[in-house]
Each structure stands twice: as structure tokens, then as C-alpha cells.
Amino acid sequence: MTHENATGYTIGVDFGTNSARALVVDCADGREVASHVVAYPSGDAGVLLDPSDANLARQHPGDYIVGFEQSIRGAVQAAAEDAAFDVLKVVGLGVDTTGSTPLPVNAEGLPLAMTPEFKGHLAAQAWLWKDHTAHAEAQEITELAKQRGEPYLAKCGGTYSSEWFWAKILKCKRVAPEVFAAAHSWVELADFVPAYACGTTAPDQVVRGICAAGHKAMYSDAWGGLPRKDFLTELDPALASLRDRLYDRALPSSEPAGALTAQVAERCGLPAGIPVAVGAFDAHHGAVGAGVRPGTLVKIMGTSTCDITVWPQDEQDEAQPLADIPGLCGIVPGSVVAGQYGLEAGQSAVGDLFNWVAKQLAPARYTQAGDAHVALTAEAETLEPGASGLVYLDWNNGNRTVLVNPRLTGLMVGQTLHTTAAEIYRAVVEATAFGALAIVNRFEDHGVKIDRVVNCGGIAEKSALVMQIYADILNRPMQVSRSGQTCALGAAIFGSVVGGIHATVADAMDAMTDIKEQVYMPDPQSVKVYAELFAFYRVLHDAFGGVESSATPGHLAGGVTMGEVMPQLMDLRDRVRQGESE
């Protein structure tokens, strides 16, 4: 329960792909007092690229330090304009980051990219979440675990991803052995930032979060922590040696990672000694900032999406068994809220897909008046579901869930010489909603009921078109989080817990989160049309996704076969245009 008469402020720091954001929050009611954003100074919008390898995406670790200190200082200075704010009443601090974003460090915990020897070396940087260079290594890890009958993949969907911890480290060993040899250990960004803030960067002192460990590093108390050394040895003996220099224990974010050092506190404009919560990934904290509960799916919508829900963690409650769910990014106890399983899924391209159409496919007339998204949206809103005759596969950046395959690409079916940019724009929005429905179906096929969907992020706040299409395709009301900064708010919530204002995360969510009044309700006629379109999407999804029809109930959904997709799409298009859709 919340401590009576306890008042104070908390700070959440959200490390995104391109910038760091600090948010000052009133613990009593979640009022967002002030925020400040700092763009990462290095690379292309903070990302270090290699023109010869489109799969490579790295970041300079020094950018995280700059982002942490400057964003907090800016937010605190802005909060000082509020007469009620008192910096001495800041009780706690939380951190969320992208992930899996591991970085190699030396024996003192200094990132190798910040040493003279490896300055500018791409492999010595932080390996950003969307770095897919390790796709072959990920497949190797998956195949070995299956061959040996290991349990390691059961809780992360059955397939290891190129975005994750071990695959990236193994790739580094193979392409940059000098970096691997110099690395005393590897630390996730979500663990590095709190360790830096608390002065505990030495690898054996870094407090590791269960979120990163469980979802990305195959960590589980059920098998003694990280994968056993004999398994890692078969991948590469050097990985087995590295395991001894990693960690044996991981904690939820409701636990403190330490306290803010005097030196860092001074640079941030804060008092020293403020407790800092154990770090976690942005989507997981975003779910907390949106008030996640069992039965609630939180969609953090941005360039990609992460979908998070929770499930009661009661080993004695046989009435609520939780099955392993193929294709998920993880089922991890405590990764979202201590005492509950955190379930993660997501899509690799959503906002990125909309931007692709606006930037690459929209004729000049859509950009003459300004933002192409505005013009495309206005025209797309006039189109009836099914009227374009288009179905799109939303895999332009691979498939994160449920196929877990970064080597898949986008596909559009049904285009003609009359197809417009606005029709394509609407079709890719629909495609991302179909992908979201595939995820919801996967949850529910394995017993995890999704009763409500809460959406977060700029897309959810700004695009009524997207939200209505999602409501119609998922056939569920679409709610939008009150906060436009749910990841930072979630981090701040954990700061309020380690700071002693709220006794539990549930208490903090009750006090500090809410949803907007507007709710997007499904339109019954659109729901019917989209159910037909989803049958086409499902056939294409399974055929191009390599899914065996015998293993996929509904592969011939609605009686549609691969050869019938195009003509039946045209039939549906014509019926809609003639006002005859059933």
C-alpha cells in the first residue's frame, strides 16, 4: 500500500534508440512535472552504421553518460519552475533502455569503446538492439539447444534471436577476436546505466536485472541461472570461460541497484545518495507506466512495437497454469512486476513502415503541403476497409513474433496500375494490425486471455486512423495511456518504490497511471471485412513464413488457398466498392 502522508518526486530516465529522456514525476498522482530530451551526439541520429553491412547498428557508450547526466539536469532545471517542486524531495530514480544492447567492458567496467585502444572500433561499441549481424549465430544457438534437448529456449519462444545477448557476443568473437579477448565481461545497457550512476561498474559489482537476463540471455533460476558451461563450450569454449565473468543472480526493478554517487549527483543537479532502481527494458517499464494487469496487453508503439502482458506467478495455483508459448520473446518471472510473469512479444517494423511509405513511395503532391503522413492519413481515412484490394506482409525489418525470423521481408499483394500511395499507406497500417492480431491469437491459443489493449507512444496519441484500424482488426476497444511518456513514467514508478513512497509497484501504478477518456471502439461492419482480409493475410503469413499447414490450425482460413488469394481479394474489393460487403 502507499505510505500515508508520504510526498515526494521521482525521476525516470528512458534511453531510446536516438535519445535519452528524463521525466520528473509527482509520486502522489503521477503528475508529470517536467521532462528533458538529449539527442545522442554520435553517429547518424545516435546510431553508428556500416555502409557495407545494413544489419549493423551500434552506439557509443559515452552517449549514454551524456544522455543520463544532461537529461536529468535539464529536467530538474525545468521542474524548478514549478513552485511546488523541491529537488530535495526527489526520493528515487529509475532507468529503462533499449535491449538487448550489450557492451564489452574491461576489468574496471569501463566500456572498451572509451579506451584509447578501441576508440572508433565498431565491435567495441554497444551492440544496439536492432543490430541483426548475428542472425547466423542465433540460428546456431537455436539448433544446438534443440539438438541437445536443452530447456533454455522454452521461455523465449523456442527460437533465439539475432537481437539478443549471446548471439551478439558470439558474433563479436568471430568477426573481432581482438575485442572479445580484451573484454573482461559484457554488460547490458539496462545494467550499465544504473551501475554508472551508483559507481559500481566493476563487472562483479554490477547489479543485473532479471528483465535483460531472462528475456535475452537465457537466464532462469529453474536451471541455475545462465546456460551451463558444457552448452556454451559446444558453441565456443571462450563463451564458457566468459560465463564465469558474468553473473549468477538477477533482480527485478523493484529492488535498488545502489545509490547515486556524489560526483554523478552533482553533474545531474541532484542530492547524492538517492536510491537507483535496477534497470530494465523500455517496453517492460512502459507497460508499468500504462498500468499493466493480467488480461491487459500494453502495446508500446514506435518505429517497432513491443507487446507486454503479465500473468500471476503462483506456483501453487494449479487453476492458472502458464504454458510455454512458441514465438514469444520471453516468459520471465519478475521482468515486468515482481511476483508476476512478464510476457513479451512485438513487431520489428511499425512506425518505420509508415515512414517508408511517406518517404519513399508518396508522390510530391503529398509532401507539398508539409508532412506526407498528414496528407496520406487524410486520404486513407476516406477509404473503406477492403476497397484497395491490397494485403501487405509487415516484415520489412523481419518478423519478431511469432515467426522470429529476421530474414523475412515485406510483401504486397493486390496492387494494380491504379493503386495509390494512400491505399498502400492504409494497407501497411492494416498489415501491422494483422501482425498484432497474430500475436494476440498466439497468446490466447495458449491460454493467455487478452481482454483489453492499452496503447502507448506517439502513434497511439496522434493517429486516430491507426487506432481505429487496430480496434476493427483486433475486434477490441483500443485505449490510450494517459501519459505520452510511459517508458519514462514506468521507470519513475520504480524510483518511487525503491525510494519508499509506494510499498509495491501495484500501489504505485494505482496512484500514478491512467488512460485517456477517448476509447476507439470496433465498427461491426469493418470487423467483418477485416476478418476476411485476415484470412488472406494468414495464408500469406504461413506460406512465406515457412509455417507447415499441418502445424497451424486455420492455415486454410475461410477456405482460402494460396492460389485463391488474388482473385478473392479482387472479389472482396469489388463488393466493397459496390457497397455489397456482407
List keywords for this structure.
six-stranded mixed beta sheet; 582 residues; alpha+beta
Report the sheet-strand fraction: 15-25%
Distance between the termini: 52 Å
Shape: globular
Radius of gyration from CA coordinates:
24 Å
Number of beta strands: 20
| Average pLDDT score | 93
Q: What composes the largest sheet?
A: 6 strands, mixed
Please list the strands of the largest sheet in the order they lie side by side.
Answer: 15-16-14-13-19-20
Residue share in helix: 25-40%
- Unreliable spans are 550-557
Give the SSE map.
Blueprint: E1 9-15, E2 19-26, E3 32-39, E4 48-50, E5 53-59, H1 61-79, E6 90-97, E7 102-105, E8 126-127, H2 135-148, H3 165-175, H4 177-182, E9 185-188, H5 189-198, H6 210-216, H7 229-235, H8 237-243, E10 256-259, H9 262-268, E11 275-277, E12 280-281, H10 282-289, E13 296-301, E14 305-312, E15 330-333, E16 340-347, H11 351-361, H12 372-380, E17 391-393, E18 411-413, H13 421-445, E19 452-456, H14 458-462, H15 464-474, E20 478-480, H16 486-498, H17 505-512, H18 524-544, H19 565-577
Parallel strand pairs: 1-6, 6-12, 13-19, 19-20
Antiparallel strand pairs: 1-2, 2-3, 4-5, 5-8, 7-9, 10-11, 13-14, 14-16, 15-16, 17-18
Helix pairs in contact: 1-9, 2-3, 7-8, 10-16, 11-13, 12-13, 13-15, 15-18, 16-17
Task: Describe the 3D structure.
- By secondary structure, the protein is an alpha+beta fold.
- The chain contains 19 helices and 20 strands.
- The chain has helices spanning 61-79, 135-148, 165-175, 177-182, 189-198, 210-216, 229-235, 237-243, 262-268, 282-289, 351-361, 372-380, 421-445, 458-462, 464-474, 486-498, 505-512, 524-544, 565-577, and strands at residues 9-15, 19-26, 32-39, 48-50, 53-59, 90-97, 102-105, 126-127, 185-188, 256-259, 275-277, 280-281, 296-301, 305-312, 330-333, 340-347, 391-393, 411-413, 452-456, 478-480.
- Strand 13 (296-301) and strand 14 (305-312) form a beta hairpin.
- It starts with 8 loop residues before the first strand and ends in a 5-residue tail after the last helix.
- The model is unreliable at 550-557 (pLDDT under 50).
